[in-house]
Design brief:
By secondary structure, this protein is an alpha/beta fold. It contains 8 helices and 7 strands; from the N terminus they run αββββαβαααβαααβ. It has one domain: 3-Layer(aba) Sandwich (Rossmann fold), CATH 3.40.50.150. The protein has a 7-stranded mixed beta sheet. α2 (80-90) links the parallel β4 and β5 (91-102). The radius of gyration is 17 Å and the shape is globular.
């Protein structure tokens, strides 16, 4: 239910017009049920995935895509500058990158550093990190570093991208659904109840959110 909500929120931010949508890091997801012509991809072989690729070397023509979408993926890309350059090349003017990624708040920092196995380093002085294999390293704080802490640096380096929106969200449901511990702490029937609780706490998302939906738009050349 968490991923269905994420997918539908991503769809709401997709631009109209020509070009296909590429999902990076599709894994076992079900986005094709929601976006019929989406190109699914993964960095390692997965049954049913259309394209194997490295996000830093996209096998698509210039301005051929209307969007790139991803969930929980950007913070695994060790050379994010290469990805941003490739996305700039492949996405047409007016196209978008839409993603749901971990976000840094007081609450999420405690959860990610105490309860999660992946590194979460909001104080990292570099955007890149060493890696020895697919998904072998990460920095869960990377999206926040790029688009909040170092936003002025990002905007100076990538004037072709406009940050359309950053929407912090979901302080509790991902955690309670087993997203960190792999053990669900809430029955499925309580999902809508917890959604209502989170909606009531929306004004506190800057302090409590564990994720953010981030939308970048490609400016005309």
């Amino acid at each position: 239910m968490v991923y269905e909500e994420w997918y539908r929120s991503i769809v709401s931010d997709l631009p109209a017009g020509p070009g296909r949508v590429l999902e990076i890091g599709s894994g076992a997801g079900f986005l094709p049920l929601i976006i019929k012509d989406v190109i699914t991809s993964e960095v390692f072989p997965v049954p049913g995935i259309q394209v194997g690729l490295d996000a830093c070397h996209l096998p698509f023509g210039s301005a051929s895509l209307r969007a790139i979408v991803m969930t929980d993926v950007l913070h695994h890309i060790p050379k994010v500058r290469l990805f941003l350059c490739e996305a700039s090349r492949c996405i047409r003017a007016g196209g978008r990158v839409v993603m749901v990624e971990p976000w840094h708040t007081r609450w999420s920092r405690w959860v990610y550093t105490k309860l999660h196995h992946e590194p979460f380093r909001p104080d990292a002085d570099q955007w890149e990190f060493p890696v020895s294999g697919p998904l072998s390293a990460a920095n869960g704080a990377l999206p926040w570093i790029l688009f909040d802490r170092d936003r002025s640096v990002f905007e100076a380096e990538y004037p072709q991208w406009r940050i359309v929106a950053i929407r912090p969200c979901m302080p509790f449901r991902y955690l309670l659904s087993g997203g960190v511990s792999q053990r669900a702490l809430m029955p499925a029937w309580t999902f809508s109840l917890w959604r209502a609780v989170e909606n009531g706490l929306r004004s506190w998302n800057q302090q409590l959110a564990m994720f953010a939906r981030i939308v970048l738009e490609r400016r005309p050349a």
